[in-house]
Each structure stands twice: as structure tokens, then as C-alpha cells.
Amino acid sequence: MRRPLALISSVVLCAPLALPRGAWANSEASISASAAEPGPNPEEARLKEASERFQKGLTFYDQGEAKLALVEFEKAYELVPDYRVLYNLGLVAIQLGEFARARVALESYLRQGGESVDAGRKAEIERDLEMLRARTAVLRVETKEPEVLVLVDDVPVGETPSVEPLVLDVGPHRVSFRRDGYEATTERVTLAGGEEKTVAVQLRPVKPQLVTVRERPLPPPVMQPSGPPVGAWVGWGVTAALATGAIATGVYGIGQASSLNSLKQTPDPSPSQMDQLSSSASTALLATDVLIVGTGVALAVSTYLTFFAPRDRDKAAQARSLGVALSPTLIQAYGAF
């Protein structure tokens, strides 16, 4: 049998939360506030939303939609934390079998309400809490390291040492501990009704990974034939490739710019087409400039390797390498000769 929910005429809001209904109307309708038209004030908007959420929760509850009612009551309490909403939260959570949720809500109701809760209501809630404590457990977590993030069933509950004792439903749970620089740890616990348990862990620092580098002896020198070194041929190949790319992008960029100028001469040019042609032309011409500079660098390196680099047999035996790195803002030439 469902118990009637508490009705609150106003939760320090600018609009009523609920009209009186049933046996609880008089006992919980003691807070009053002036009804005002919602304005641009963010505070008024927040209070108005809380009132509407609470009203929707009552409507859902009357319609038998306990899950929807619980969501609305929690949202109303989040917006305006009036302790009397917790009574409704607790009763609806009991009906849904979410006993830990109900216990937290009703304990908070008595703690926040204090002397404002009448004796009959208090006795009723104490009976509920006796039933709930037999169906829930309390879990405490401890870590040697501070500022460890604690997750219960993958839901963050806080960082040590500030994590309060957790009220949980009975059954199995996963308790995870995470902190940068330490290995993540997960403990699995099974809680029984009325049990109070402590999980204490010490995290292990992450071990740095060592990389071993072994030197290999250089191969014996290889006598190189006379003529331009291999690096020179590579350099001329890179020069040719860069020059070809510069010509291709230049032709494409000029063509796009010409198309853009033609489009501008039309009576009603399309802005999107103009933007596309302008972007294509700018990108292609910028790439052309970069490739031209790269071609010049590669040409200079290739000329040096062909006509000026030492070619005696001892130095020719040494390994040579050549490379050119290009980016929109940087050109690098590197090599070993």
C-alpha cells in the first residue's frame, strides 16, 4: 500500500509547489512566500523551475510513475534544498527498492528538520530507518596516499581523505582507487544487511619503463667509386621533385585565381563558390611558395655535394645521408657527409 507523500505549499520559492492534497497538507504547508511573476532574475527562474519540478513529481506519483516522480523530486531538491522534499524522496525510493537512497534521504530529513519534525512523523521515519538499516550497509574507505579518487561501481564518490562513510545497498560492489602516478586498484566487496566495513588500500607507484640501447659496431668501410657521391644524386632527385610540385601547385593556384576573377564578373556570383575558389587559390599559391623555397635549398645542397664536397677515398667510405623536411612554416635540410 502506498503511503501519501508530503505536500509543501512553497519551498522558499516565488511560486507554490503544490496545492493541499490529502492528510499531509496541513503538516507540511508552513512555509509561505509571495507569489510573483517570473522575471529575468536567474534566482527567480531557478525557484520557479524547482516549484514546477516538485509539482510534476506529485503528478507522476499520483499516476503510479514512481521512477519519474523520484527524478523530479531530486531535481527540485537540487535546485532548492528544502529538507521536506527529502521525505518524498525517501518514500518513493522505498517503493522502488532503492533502500540506500531512501536511508540517506530520510536520515538527512531528520537531521536537517530537527525540532521542526513533529513527534508522530519522527516515530514513523524511525521505523522506516530501522527497516532500511537491515537492508543496507555502511562502507568506509581509507588510503595511505591523499587525493585518491574513489569510485563505487564506476561512480565517483570523492577524494580521500574527505570521503564520508557510504551507505550502500547490500550485495557485491566494486570500489576503485585512482591517482596520477599510481597504479589503479579495484577491490570487490560483498556487503550484508546492517554491516559496517572498511576498505583500506595502499597504491603502488607506477614503475618507470627502462629502455636499453645497444650500440652496434660500424661496418667496415666500403670503397666508393669515383664520381658524384650518392647524396648528390639524392639531392638532385629531391630538387626535381620539389620543382615539379611547385610548378603543379602554381598552375593550379593560378587557375583557381583566374576562375575566381571570372566568377566576380558574373551578375550574381555565389558567395560559397567565391569562398571556395579563394581558399583553394590561397592554399595552392602558399604551397607553391614553400616548394620554391624548398627547391632552392635542395638545389644548393645538391650543387655543394656535386662540385665541392671532399671525395678522397677515406671520407667517401663514410656513410652519407641527406634529407629535407618541409612544413607550412619551416624548411629544414639535414645530412651527414
Brief characterization of the structure:
With 337 residues, this protein is of the alpha+beta class.
Write the layout of secondary structure elements.
Elements: H1 42-62, H2 66-79, H3 85-95, H4 99-113, H5 119-133, E1 136-143, E2 149-152, E3 155-159, E4 166-169, E5 171-178, E6 185-191, E7 196-201, H6 230-264, H7 271-307, H8 313-316, E8 321-327, E9 330-336
Parallel strand pairs: 1-7
Antiparallel strand pairs: 1-4, 2-3, 2-5, 5-6, 8-9
> How would you spell out the order of helices and strands?
HHHHHEEEEEEEHHHEE
Number of structural domains:
3
Unreliable segments of 5+ consecutive residues: 9-37
Strand order, sheet with most strands? 3-2-5-6
Under CATH, the topology of the largest domain is which? Serine Threonine Protein Phosphatase 5, Tetratricopeptide repeat
Q: CATH top level of the largest domain? A: Mainly Alpha
**Ends distance:** 92 Å
Helix segment tally: 8
Mean pLDDT: 80
Overall geometric form:
elongated
Determine the strand fraction and express it as a percent band: 15-25%
Helix content: 40-55%
**Largest sheet, described in full?**
4 strands, antiparallel
Number of strands: 9
CATH architecture call of the largest domain:
Alpha Horseshoe
> SS-based structural class?
alpha+beta
Radius of gyration: 38 Å
